[in-house]
Amino acid sequence: xxxxxxxxxxxxxxxxxxxxxxxxxxxxxxxxxxxxxxxxxxxxxxxxxxxxxxxxxxxxxxxxxxxxxxxxxxxxxxxxxxxxxxxxxxxxxxxxxxxxxxxxxxxxxxxxxxxxxxxxxxxxxxxxxxxxxxxxxxxxxxxxxxxxxxxxxxxxxxxxxxxxxxxxxxxxxxxxxxxxxxxxxxxxxxxxxxxxxxxxxxxxxxxxxxxxxxxxxxxxxxxxxxxxxxxxxxxxxxxxxxxxxxxxxxxxxxxxxxxxxxxxxxxxxxxxxxxxxxxxxxxxxxxxxxxxxxxxxxxxxxxxxxxxxxxxxxxxxxxxxxxxxxxxxxxxxxxxxxxxxxxxxxxxxxxxxxxxxxxx
Amino acid sequence: xxxxxxxxxxxxxxxxxxxxxxxxxxxxxxxxxxxxxxxxxxxxxxxxxxxxxxxxxxxxxxxxxxxxxxxxxxxxxxxxxxxxxxxxxxxxxxxxxxxxxxxxxxxxxxxxxxxxxxxxxxxxxxxxxxxxxxxxxxxxxxxxxxxxxxxxxxxxxxxxxxxxxxxxxxxxxxxxxxxxxxxxxxxxxxxxxxxxxxxxxxxxxxxxxxxxxxxxxxxxxxxxxxxxxxxxxxxxxxxxxxxxxxxxxxxxxxxxxxxxxxxxxxxxxxxxxxxxxxxxxxxxxxxxxxxxxxxxxxxxxxxxxxxxxxxxxxxxxxxxxxxxxxxxxxxxxxxxxxxxxxxxxxxxxxxxxxxxxxxx
Lengths: 360, 360
What we know:
The structure is a homodimer. Chain A is of the alpha/beta class.
């Protein structure tokens, strides 16, 4: 294994230490329990947004902590859920009195631990809601997941909900918005190569020199199809059409009911993508793919969307939710309305994502 | 070869087409001859900054075209110099009447072609100066290069000079500033893996599973040393100390002399890095390296700089000047003064680099 690391078990801690020293103007890092938080937190009367999950997907989530996005991120070990004590400690650190939204990717460990953290925080008087992201159209039920996996839409939800919180939305409004983003966002990814976990030292799965895996998960979970290498245009078309043709997915998700004071099952159905819809198109690199290749994917994606009558009004192209050094890409299409576009355009300042300015 | 491409020979064109459709608010792309330019160019009475070089180093340079950085970029084929007609056409497109600065990485083909373009532009009445970047301390004379290679400092020079031009510096001032950035910036890189050229389809050189190459060039040119894999801390220390201990490098570079109306040889000497200096520290990924690993490098680099009495006042961490899908990193240390810091902090808006806002 060749990686820019020291001891494999120090990978997550040392990477976070590097972030802390590099971005001391924006973030702080707490260890034992581990969480990254906005340096000026708590921000009084602002809803705080917290996400987290296994490490190995950087810059998500820690790279998105800052002004206008996340208030805190809880990184687990590589591809391993963070623990409830991390999430609880983060919530207490950043609670500005307006409540906390946990944005949770739908993996069984994350779901279980964030639920426990929600209850723990509530028992300590911190108001918490949590919203699941389950946007991966590739497979239903998978390694680590019941239902669909949470992938690229998570990044978009963190940006949009982070802006909403920054602009003064209350907790219920931010949670409703996050749910809406999830239902309107759909993704699918593919891998050209496997990734190598530092602690394991060998590829987490094996693809031959001529094979690719379509519908891969961000931990290398099996996808829909292993096939012979095809052109970028063919791969893009397979991913894009899988997303566009997916419609009306219905699932039951657990959400905390504020009024009842208990978890309730909520049945949620994705609205269809239709001709005339405005969309945000996100082409994401899996960590080891050069941005030049992502633009080749975007080129074809734009052509397909146009043909389908979908108007791309915003885009994002780069490596935002990764699988260590995996080569490959994912596509996320998010149906957006004017509110989402306005929040997308709002300023943001984090270690890995920045645009616009904040009034000082 | 597994890449997200179609026909290898279409790689550069299709990637640029993707950029054009993705960022039509910021840039336009011209083909035959090929150059990327700021969508609102020419900007009247503003010095225009143009760079270029072989493709395969994205996001440099095309990703840096926009407001507050480059006015145009001339991409060659992969690892191949662009031609004088590209540079001339770009100059004529973006000339706002205040002259053009070519920022040129020191590779023989680039140097020769930008010199020719300078003369051609001048013969058509466009005032052009050109500044060479030769910041790579690893080796003197190399494949493709007489003297030192131009690497990471190029990115920093483009940001700083782009801001200066945006703020109204005249051509001579921008050129002098660019020369100063080059003399104060030094870099060294290393590779964990080779890279694969689309047209060739196989790795451009071979490193075994346990070997790394220290002092590698961005085209995979041989470095100082091929050695057994070491820890991130050891690798960082070798790179950082090679840069810090390098001092007083003297070379003769050709520059256009405005008064004499001819090329003159200018002897230039790098000023030393000394205790108490303020520096900008840039940890760059080579294209296939996850950002989490770059932070592990930055962590050690910050420790080394502190021990050496160098105060890191700004930093940049990410993949900005790459070698296709190569895994590895480079470090650039730029000694900065207040003027450079102010220009570094100035707003910028390009496809791959954005912060702050411009008055509208």
